[in-house]
Write a structure and sequence with these properties.
The protein is an alpha+beta fold and 142 residues long. It contains three helices and five strands. Helix 2 packs across helix 3. Bound molecules: guanosine-5'-monophosphate (5GP). The site of guanosine-5'-monophosphate (5GP) has 13 residues, from strand 2.
Length: 142
Amino acid sequence: MPMTAYDDKNIFARILRGEIPSHRVYEDDQVVAFMDVMPQGAGHTLVVPRAPSRNLLDADPAVIGGVIAIVQKIARAVKEAFAADGVTIMQFNEAAAGQTVFHLHFHVIPRFEGVALQRHSGEMEKPEVLSANAEKVKRVLG
Ligand code: 5GP
């Protein structure tokens, strides 16, 4: 079955273009990382390559290589920033797998012993909390 084409009106493409705001923690010429507005845990961060692809299935392997190195960098930073016990990395491909925004991204979520994840795409977090959490990560990243 042919894959659906990339649509550059998706919400992350608009965030990358600066058309709608986000709480950014990191950016370079390849990748932008910002706080998830409906976090599944405190410090839930999204790592998003600038290059357009719907998800991992249609992405250029060279883009994946670059973005995964930044996923590691952000995972280390959130673990330190939130004094977490671990970090969950998630990535969904197509609606049947739970994907809701169709621009490749990786979820990076600090984890704590005995604390379950919140629901996926659940409650909106307050902007001031997202802003404070972004500052914590940025401080670690320097
Ligand atoms: P997916 O299901 O596609 O892997 O995850 C999309 C994620 O994007 C969800 O965790 C959801 O909370 C988050 N999200 C949806 N809309 C926005 C938005 O406008 N801004 C930000 N920062 N995150 C969003």
